[in-house]
Design a protein that fits this description.
The chain is mainly alpha-helical. The protein has two domains: 405 residues, no CATH class; 142 residues, Transcription Regulator spoIIAA. Helix content is 60%, strand content 4%. It contains 27 helices and six strands. A six-stranded mixed sheet has the order 2-1-3-4-5-6. Strand 4, helix 24 and strand 5 form a beta-alpha-beta unit. Helix 7 runs antiparallel to helix 16, helix 15 packs parallel to helix 17 and helix 23 runs parallel beside helix 24.
Length: 625
């Protein structure tokens, strides 16, 4: 007994508390929530000048990488920048058409935002540009209050306003370090949403393939199909197809000789289409083209931002949803490519960069931009070294706007439809959906709810339903936390879940329960019923000579507890006290211990002698009790 007491004394739990006041504890928890990576830790103890320079480098990353920039890096960035510019031209025109905007606005949106991101962005691989999903989403929302055909100026102005509001939301989330909110868009949600969006976009591209000029602003499959079938009398099959043999021969040749073609294929399609349309006077044969493209740099649009009350609610609704969509895609792409380069991407810093580029972009006739996966992947594989590749792309776009924009006015709409369709097919990740089905059925349901919601109802409904299911799942984890009954692994001092280790040995007269999650009000009732049910089961299987005497609660996984949770522990104690069963606690965390002491729970169950660092010590005491 003396040896045991000495061991317990040597390993005694500290009951003096952490000494933190409520304010200091709250400040510490807030810092851990908003600054988990503690980005300013290296500035502690530094003079004011060094702190100022450090803060500037953090918020303006170009100040960090530009001083050490070299010509060796520039060679790689130059190649990458020119490569992504070749992709940005056709994508910019195509996605602007998808949003029912003048095609030149798509080119504008690949000029100013990349320059801003080069200053404030932290990812060396991210390439900035417009995306199909956000383009279609904004078109479906803004198209409900303004017509792209009847009042194109108002329609464009509302897109600029939405970009401004989206930028404000993104920057505010980044400044307030609220990147945690974007985490509610799970990977399953994004997979289903992007696949559903891709299906709708592909269906809408039949308009271009069939030579139709009008389509509905609604995005569900029923409305889109109805719009197509009501215009069958306008279908145009003017373009003569290439023979099947020639097509196979061409594709085989391209695969063998031009393995790099997929990167510049969209630009080749546009250039060839322009030349063909110009030479044969395509419009005379019923082939629709893009039409006039204004030459010159982005016109200033700050005075065009429209905050009239009759449009503001619609714009804010579109901006809020678009902000989360753009952030989730951009940050996910930046982090994914950062892992390949062994780089750390700060999500909150990226939010600020995205916000600033959309705010400033809205002042120069740009609509919503983010970091599209296709363009960023090309940037990475082209060998980019720094954010300078975005600057190179912007310079290329400037040259196009100043000198080459009119060339692209002959681009056939069918060519743009082909480019969009091929890009969208890549967004349907059926392999990921199958993996979700095999690994986690609930995640698969979340994915399919987003997909089916987008396809059959609207993009907003699909996204909201999927997010709500994700939140419901998180709440279920809180309301039904993990807990298990522990048994001893023979020949060891280890205690493990008896369900996972059926050969583990249950102890006589002692019940060991592991509580593995925070104990909040939503879970208190469930945990009480679970503990008492285990106690009842043990009493039923115990023989007359060995009835249950001790319940040991392993609280190492209980990171927090609220007042309702403490009340639950009191209720359990009162129930067990009536049966002359004692409670011991193992390894409670400091914040939990402080609350249990303040509530006098430790005192009521028997004092400090009932709290231990390990299950072994708690069992040893139960044998002496």
């Amino acid at each position: 007994m003396e040896a045991f007491e000495g061991a317990v004394q040597r390993n005694a739990v500290n009951f003096s508390g952490s000494g933190q006041t409520f304010l200091s504890s709250f400040r510490s928890d807030l810092k851990e929530t908003l600054l988990p990576d503690d980005p300013f830790r290296h500035l502690k103890g530094q003079p004011a000048g060094a702190v100022t320079v450090g803060l500037l480098r953090y918020f303006v990353p170009i100040l960090e990488w530009a001083p050490s920039y070299s010509f060796a890096k520039f060679k790689y960035d130059l190649l990458a920048g020119v490569t992504i510019a070749s992709l940005a031209i056709p994508q910019g025109i195509s996605y602007a058409r998808l949003a029912n905007l003048p095609p030149v606005i798509g080119l504008y949106s690949s000029f100013v935002p990349p320059l801003v991101y080069a200053l404030f962005g932290s990812s060396t691989s991210l390439a900035v540009g417009t995306v199909a999903g956000a383009s279609l989403f904004l078109a479906s929302i803004i198209g409900s209050v303004a017509s792209a055909t009847e009042d194109p100026q108002l329609y464009s102005n509302l897109f600029f306003t939405a970009a401004f509001c989206t930028g404000v939301i993104e920057a505010a989330l980044g400044i307030l370090r609220l990147g945690i909110l974007v985490d509610f868009l799970s990977r399953s949600t994004i997979t289903g949403f992007m696949a559903g969006t891709a299906c709708i976009v592909i269906l809408q591209q039949l308009k271009g393939f069939l030579g139709l000029l009008h389509s509905t602003h609604r995005t569900d499959v029923v409305s889109t199909s109805q719009s197509l079938f009501t215009q069958t009398n306008q279908v145009n099959f003017s373009v003569h197809p290439i023979s099947e043999d020639k097509t196979k021969e061409l594709l085989h040749h391209l695969r063998l000789k031009l393995f790099w073609l997929p990167v510049i294929a969209p630009l080749i399609v546009v250039v060839v289409g322009c030349v063909f349309a110009y030479l044969v006077h395509a419009e005379d044969h019923g082939i629709h083209i893009v039409g006039p493209l204004k030459k010159g740099l982005n016109p200033i649009s700050i005075s065009d931002l429209n905050f009239q009350s009759k449009y503001l609610s619609t714009v804010l609704n579109a901006s809020l949803m678009a902000a989360f969509l753009a952030l989730s895609e951009g940050i996910a792409v930046g982090r994914s490519l950062g892992i390949l380069k062994n780089e750390q991407t700060d999500g909150n810093k990226e939010m600020i960069a995205f916000g600033l580029m959309n705010i400033l972009g809205s002042f120069f006739s740009c609509y919503l931009t983010t970091g599209p996966f296709s363009r960023s992947a090309v940037n990475y594989h082209a060998g980019c070294k720094t954010q300078m590749s975005n600057v190179i792309m912007a310079i290329c776009m400037m040259l196009v706007l100043l000198f080459l924009a009119p060339v692209f006015e002959y681009t056939p709409l069918v060519a743009l439809s082909a480019i969009i369709t091929i890009a969208m097919i890549g967004l349907i990740d059926y392999e990921e959906a199958y993996r979700l089905f095999k690994v986690d059925k609930y995640d698969f349901c979340i994915c399919m709810s987003a997909f089916l919601g987008v396809v059959f109802f609207s993009m907003t409904i699909g996204l909201l339903v999927s997010v709500m299911l994700s939140i419901l799942r998180a709440l279920l984890y809180v309301a039904r936390p993990t807990s298990c009954k522990l048994g001893n692994i023979a020949g060891t001092e280890l205690y493990r879940d008896v369900m996972l280790y059926p050969n583990s040995k249950l102890l006589s007269e002692t019940l060991i329960i592991e509580l593995g999650s925070p104990i909040y009000f939503a879970a208190a009732g469930y945990l009480k019923e679970r503990i008492l049910r285990w106690v009842e089961e043990e009493e039923n299987i115990a023989n007359k000579d060995e009835h249950l005497k001790h319940v040991i609660l392993d609280m190492g996984g209980v990171t927090a507890i609220d007042n309702t949770g403490i009340g639950m522990l009191f209720d359990v104690h009162r129930n067990l006290q009536k049966k002359e069963i004692k409670i011991s606690l193992v390894n409670p965390r400091p914040g939990v211990v402080e609350k249990l002491i303040s509530s006098r729970y430790i005192e009521i169950i028997g004092g400090e002698e009932r709290v231990f660092l390990s299950i072994k010590e708690a069992i040893a005491l139960s044998h002496f009790s």
